Every structure is written in C-alpha cells, then in structure tokens.
Amino acid sequence: MKLVRILVLLICLASLLSFTLPVAFADRGGIPIGRLDALIFESGQKAIIGWNGTEEILILSTDLHASETTMVLEILPLPSNPKTIMKADSKSFTMAHNIVKSHAPRVPLYGLDLHQGGPIEMSIPSSVEITFHEKIGTHDIAVVKPRNVAEFASWIGNFLKNNNITQEASLQKFETIIRNYIFNGFNYFVLDIIELSTKQQSVEPIYYQFETSSLFYPLKISSLASGETKITLFLLTREAIDELLCFPFKYAYYGSSSSIVNPTPVMFKIQKGEIRSIDESLSNLFGSNAYFTVLQYSGSNTALIRDLRLPVWTFRLSYVTLAFREILRHLIALLPIEIMVGFILLAAIVDHISGVKRKDIDIY
After folding, report:
1. pLDDT tens across 256-285, in order?
2. Measured between alpha carbons, how far apart are the two ends of the chain, in Å?
C-alpha cells in the first residue's frame, strides 16, 4: 500500500512539473534596421549545447527570411561574458546527425514473409534531419553590457555607426523583454548584423562559450518573430534529462512515433571520441563520456515566452522520474499477463465460493 502511494505521488509530481517548470526555448531576436515595418521569420532553429554544470558551449544557427530585403540586427542575451565567440563549422551538425544514426537500435520486425523477418535498424524521424539553406555570413559581432534599456539603445546606435550604417534600429517592441533580461541579471548581449531577403537562408553557425550554473538557451528574445518554427537541440550533458522537465520540448524518437510499451528516444551515452568528432572543444567539458539527447519543438514563435534553464537539480530529479517511467513501461508491457492472471485468480475464487455454498446446502 505504501508503494502505491509513492507511485501516485510521483505521477502527480511529474504532472505538476510539466506545468510549472520554465518553458524551454531559445534563440536570437531580430530587429529590422531602417525598415521598421518589415517582418522577420525564423522558420528553423538548430543548436548543439554542451554543458558540464559550470560551463556551456553553444553552437547555433537559424533559418531566416524577411517580408522584404532588409538589414537586421540580431541580439542574443547571455548569462555571463562569453569567453569565446567565433564562426563554427556546419559539419558539427552533420557529425551530430551521424551519431544519432549510428546509435539507432535494431529491433525485431517480422512480416508475412518469414524468410525476410529479423532485426532491422529503426529509422530516424525526418524532423531530426539537419538542412542548411544558402548561408548568410555574419557582418560583425560585438558584446555589450548595458545597465538599462536607454544605455542599450545608445550601444546599438554606436554599433551601427561603427559599421557605417546610418539607418536606425528601434527597440520599442523589445523594451520590455530587454528590461526583463537586465533585471534578472542577464547583462551581456551579443550583437550581429546580417542582411535578409524574402528567400529563406541559414545564418552561419556561431560558437559561443560562457560560464553558467544552468544549461541555458534563450529564446523569449525572439518571441516577436513571425510565423512557425521548428527547433532541434542536440544536448551533451553529464547526466540524463527527462523530457518532462523540458516542457514543451519533447524527445526525438526513433521510428515513426513513440510507443508507451517500447519507447526509443534519441538519448544515449557517447564516448569521448564521438564528442570530439562534433567539436574538439566539447570534449574538454567532459570526462570519458556524456549523455547525448535530442529535443524538439514545433510551433509558433509567439509562444516562445520563456527561456530554457535546466539547473543541476533537474538532472537529479530525472533519476527518479526516468526510473519511474521505466517501471511503468514494464508494468504496461506485462498488462496482458497481469489481466490473465487476474481472471484465473477470480475464476478460482468464484469456484471456491460456489463449492463452499454447495457444501453448506448439502449439510443443510
């Protein structure tokens, strides 16, 4: 009875966490320069995030286009002054995808032709495929540390002038978001200038390295972007993370869909050589191995109202929730046997009661 109460409490806790934990989103926000009525669309976002508990490496690229040709000021908030910012190699994403493919489980599948039955490799969902469009090179990158929105506007004005741009970029729509970041201690912002057209393009991947006490991926800065987006995150961490703690992100699953009885999420341990194949610097964050997890989100940009922040305690809690999910999976898998045993026991009890009643009648 005590075990049942504990399981019920865990279910309630998991459900509550899915509604109360920070919503997981992240990316840069784009402000049109000069053409203030231009709309910015972020149709795709992909990132590789390595976090060891104190330091994070973020390799980020976005798919962008605009309602008309315009210069755009990209803004990325960070929790600390970045140690390194540089162009990254798009091959990092190719290697991450290859790792997903190489770890695809082989499961038994038997068709009508018994000679063709046997284990097959489960497919990778198309949503995990990484595609780069025509690349947009970064124009210039700077890191600023404003104390308030007015000072931030001044920083931006000087940044544009230093890049020989006489047109202005209005912060009016972003004032509340930027003020909120500064109030919560996010004093560092990375500025970047790119030129967008109506054709979808991919921003060259940029490598950021910074200190943080939580796995961090900011996106509420981009909540003013128009249209739908698809986000794919490749996470490298010391411990496993439960998707329940990453709401509304979900695991990417092998095969066409997830299964309650036999779920196969894209989450497994990789060795140092595989970590190094993605990026040499990532291997410096970990020991001999790391957990590799793929998370995904698909939906409206306007829903991106909070940042992904996963402190150490969320990984500790994942030990409990993942163990409970595994127990639940086995219980569901054994459900047909449990029902059969239940019917046998019920039949035995009914037969026993009937026998007792017949005996009483005979005696009477």
Report:
1. 555 544 568 899 999 999 999 999 999 999
2. 41
